[in-house]
Amino acid sequence: MIDISICICTFRRPLLLQRLLTAVFAQNYNQECLEVIVVDNDVHRSAIPVLNEFKKQFHDRLTVLELGESNISLARNAAIGVARGEWVVMVDDDECPAQDWLHYLLATQASFNADVVFAPVLPEYAEGVPPWIIKGQFFDRRRPVSGTPIDDKDARSGNVLVRKSFLDQLRTSSGAGPFDPSFGKTGGEDSMLFRQLHARGACMVWCDEAPVTEIVPVDRATASWLLQRSFRTGQLFMRTELAMFPKNQRWHRGLWLGLRAIIQLCISFVLAIVLLPLSPLKGFSWARICASQFGKLNHFLGAHLHVYGD
């Protein structure tokens, strides 16, 4: 009987996918109760050679799906749509877990009777990443104590265990599945989903003993990439926040959030300018906050950055 469905969406990362699948199939867990579902979201099918090799070895325990349209929401929905387990685990194709990863996720779930268990994603810096990026800890994330309740603000899909029955309750207007396809090019589909689960009363907790590592390539370890990510995070915060309100209440909430973003933008801009010559890392942190506030305001113009697909 399948208890756990590990869902992986991949896009043009065959070598990293190979590393991830090797670690997944080496888990200290009853492999007969485990299935792995991989969705190749690349129209050129770049993952198929790697997947065929694993398919020869693991047969029915590996399900391979192909999705021609580059849309992360549709890819996630496709994987969840065929999942047979009581629990769905989502992990990204550039991540890699230790051998006891599943054990700790499930142990935390049992200890707290949780519906969702989040765990750390630790940066693994590629060779050539500038020292100031590592020192600034810009890719580090908050790590609370195991069992700490998590709300939608800290929710991410990179390393998470979710009760499948909760996912089955969520259907977007298109009927495509729990992840909204309108976020499929921009990202933010995971934030939207966990906002909805939190609103439905799902018990969401943290497990600090089940980290995965995530490759940070050189092309992401730049000031421009980090500022753009902060800008996009601001856009997606405003978009998902307003989407949770009835249409007749969004203007009021949007006005309040917009005014707050203007104030925070002005403050962070001044602090960034003042601190950059004195303490570059602190100054850059404030520059990222400034970019995030600008992204929130930019949301009202209706144009959003696309980060998935060609």
UniProtKB/TrEMBL annotation:
CDD domains: Glyco_tranf_GTA_type
Ranges of residues in domain Glycosyltransferase 2-like: 5-168
Regions crossing the membrane: 254-276
InterPro entries linked to this entry: Glyco_trans_2-like, Glycosyltransf_2, Nucleotide-diphossugar_trans
Membrane in keyword set: yes
Keywords, sorted A to Z: Membrane, Transmembrane, Transmembrane helix
Name by which UniProt lists this protein: Glycosyltransferase
Gene source species: Undibacterium jejuense
